[in-house]
Amino acid sequence: MQGGNELVTGRSNSAADLAALTRLGQSVELKQLEKRLSRFNLFSILRTEYAEIRHSNILAWLLDPKGSHKLRTDFLIPWLSAVLTENAKRADRPECWFDPASLDAMQVKQVYVDREHENIDLLVVIRFEDEKNWVLCIENKVDAPESEGQLERYYKFVERLWPNAERRLYAFLSRGAASAGHPAYLNTTYEGVSKTLRDCLELDIPSGPHFLLEQYHDLLLEKFVIDEDARKLAAKIYETHAKAIDYIVANKPDHLSDLTRAVVDQLQGRADSLGIEMDASSSSIVRFVPEAWIGDGNSGATAWRPGGPIILFELSFASDRVKLEVVAAPPDEVRAELIWDLAGKPPFQRPGRDRPGAYIKPFKRNSSIRIDEGRNGVERFSREVVEWVEQQLKTNECKTAIAAIGKLIVEFEDLSK
Length: 417
Prior knowledge:
single chain, 417 residues, five-stranded mixed sheet, 10 strands, 18% strand, disordered N terminus
């Protein structure tokens, strides 16, 4: 085997692997990429890079011509024009049959930007010099999925309140290529926000706002959109050091499994004091059953293991943040209907209008603990998670939910007789 771009073979060659790793460590391009990806960012330090509320606040500031950024409409109009251009070919949206370039020629008289009005993330009313009004409703999705009926409620509210507006526009802004679950909404991504911000940074604006905009732009490039320069640099590094990189990937630690095992061990050690019994877990989900749910009425399911529980708690690490859910996998229609009926009563909440086919999740608690915090120390992370679980189990809502499901399980026992 020769050269720096050899592929890893089935047979290990320690000397060659070590040499390849050494060359990678000395790579000038790798140092450039590390510098690019690890540069200072205020938002990352404050751990707000995925906080949807923070992004909505920044967008509200940018969209307001009176903001301290001094951009006037130099963000609002180009960004809105780009959203219209992006959706111009949608035959189902006649309000997009509009030359976005003509928007630049329209004289803006006044802009009102509102946050969380009727739970709408961003509501923008634009009044032009000719006294015509445009209303823009923006639903911002950074981490959370779209809720059942959410977009329809916002749509009806705007349609009812501004029936005489010349245009009523609805934008569904997301990190990736997510599509809105409502036909009225125009799909757009943070890549468009990033591009408009890049142009704004070329303008003459005060140093303070310029620094903040630059930091926000860098954050979007790193976390939300593809940094083309970084991608090309990474491709060049891989081309030169494929053997070393393949070797590293092949020996990459399973970080999520390590976190899960640590949390399982912590919960197992405190199972008696917490009043729980551990059940079958996976690489990213920890499962347990409260003592009040243990019995013949809560057995016989096969979703997690043969003869396993019908209802249990799942502590999930599969998304960006830790969450705790009650999950039910009813083995028959009768039990499924009983669980679904209970899900419609407080403190439970049905996950949708129609009953799911397999798993019913009537109770959920989201934590502020980010999964990536586990990289700072598995033991500390697992202790923090278990302490949070203990706090949740002591809340009145959780106690009520456990008691209600305990009574339901007694009904399940009667069904088995």
